[in-house]
Amino acid sequence: MSDIIIFLVLLAIGFTTGTIIESAHFKSIRKREKELLGIPVVTLEKANEDDTRIDSVYLATGECVVALDYFKMVLAGLKGIIGGRLGSYETLIDRGRREAVLRMKEKAKKAGCDMIVNMRIETSSIGQNANQKNGFGCVEVVAYGTAIRLKK
Fold first, then answer.
1. Rounded to the nearest 5 degrees, what angle is found at the Cα of 129, between the Cα atoms of 12 and 84?
2. CATH label, 2-150, candidates 3.40.47.10, 3.30.1330.30, 3.40.309.10, 3.30.110.70
3. What is the DSSP letter of 19?
4. Helical segments of 1-152, H only
5. Tell me: the pLDDT tens digits for 55-111?
6. Where do the structural domains in the chain lie, given as residue ranges?
7. pTM for this model (two decimals)
8. Dihedral of CA 29/32/37/41: which sign?
């Protein structure tokens, strides 16, 4: 009986710690998103080939690997038995996507670019047992696009 209590206490501590860390990451993401609002990311159907305002272009990329903490993965596994939304996995994807886009925008800003066009996002599972159901819940997200520096 004491082993079950110790397990549940450790599970609760791990879950709480993971939630606090995830919350801090989301807070950081929201702050950085506000700071980078000046660099728009747009999709163009057709580029204007005679646009003389473009000074240079740059391939901007942002990569991010985010792991789901083990304790949330255990709870998601239990939820998977019953069925329904797996919110912990949804936040994993959301954190990875937003972080990758922010890193791409930060690189574009550092290169002196004014905007990013035709952004794409790729995701994949990575790590040990990534193709198995009992993998450890890790996702790689890559955001990339064409960063443009306009003539001043």
1. 55
2. 3.30.110.70
3. H
4. 2-35, 70-82, 87-110
5. 888 999 999 998 877 766 777 677 777 777 777 778 888 899 999 999 999 999 999
6. 2-150
7. 0.79
8. negative
